Fold:
Amino acid sequence: MPIELSCAASKVTASLREDSDGLLAGLRAFRDHALKPVSAGRRWIQSYYGHSPELAMVLIQNPDARKAALVVVEHFSRLGRSELRRELGVLGEELRSLNGLSLGQAVRRAEIDAGKADVVLPLVRAHQLGEGSRKADWELIRKYLPKERGDNESSQKQSQ
Structure:
């Protein structure tokens, strides 16, 4: 699998926008700050990586699905780019979880949570693909990826 094709579905979707780099940067921030810190988030990431090329093929074949995916991608990209919103959201959740607890109970909960820091989170492997994704048409996917900046010459050579 070509390395540049990891996250193929996101890249195919982002190619609908001129600012695909910013859109993808927001998605990566959401992945790294909202999903990676928790086990369930890592399972979601792994599932996406495993099926992204297969999903890219579906999006290429169905323009309406691709437009709908763009709405979802834009939403999570905005969340990823909003560091203040992310931090306030996390803080709000933490504070709500302490509602009604005495100071001693809150301290004990914090000690328990600190002990969980030793828990090993599952690995995320971007190139561990599902069966359908291993059969994806990489050349077709490549045509729908956003064009890299400064890579116009190589893109022109490929199209000739």
Summary: Residues 39 and 86 are 18 Å apart (CA to CA). Residues 153-160 have pLDDT under 50 and may be disordered.
